[in-house]
Design brief:
Length: 138
């Protein structure tokens, strides 16, 4: 049986808890990612999705109604918007088990930890790609 290790992305982008929202938004946009992991030293402390960023940014940015307060919203640190206590999996987790974990927690990514070391990330897109490939081979 295939495991998360077979499909996870190893190119994990992490930010620190004090990274500003404007930098987080730039990372997501430039890399085409939908999730960033937040590490304090070497410890995983949170996850930020592109949806979290959209909710944290003032809707008045770049409009005629923009105020200084709206611009300051881009200075908020990652620690203000991240989801703490992330649900994680190990590299040897069976793929169907990881899919169930995503559904049970209504989340779209799982950081992959080997012990306490961050070794990857698996997303709903990775799982869909895997299951679509299995169906195409049948």
């Amino acid at each position: 049986m295939k495991t998360i290790n077979d499909i996870m992305s190893r190119d994990v982008v992490c930010v620190s808890p004090d990274t500003a929202l404007m930098d987080i938004r730039r990372h997501l946009h430039e890399r085409g990612f939908h999730h960033l992991l937040v590490r304090d030293d070497e410890r995983l402390v949170g996850v930020i999705s592109d949806r979290d960023v959209l909710q944290a940014i003032s809707p008045f940015l770049n409009t005629y109604s923009e105020s200084a307060r709206d611009v300051r919203s881009l200075e908020r640190p990652a620690s203000d918007i991240m989801r703490t206590d992330p649900v994680t999996v190990a590299p040897d987790t069976p793929i169907p088990e990881a899919a169930v974990t995503l559904l049970e927690h209504s989340i779209s990514c799982l950081p992959v930890l080997s012990g306490t070391d961050l070794v990857g990330i698996v997303t709903t897109k990775d799982l869909l790609r895997h299951f679509a490939g299995q169906e195409a081979a049948s």
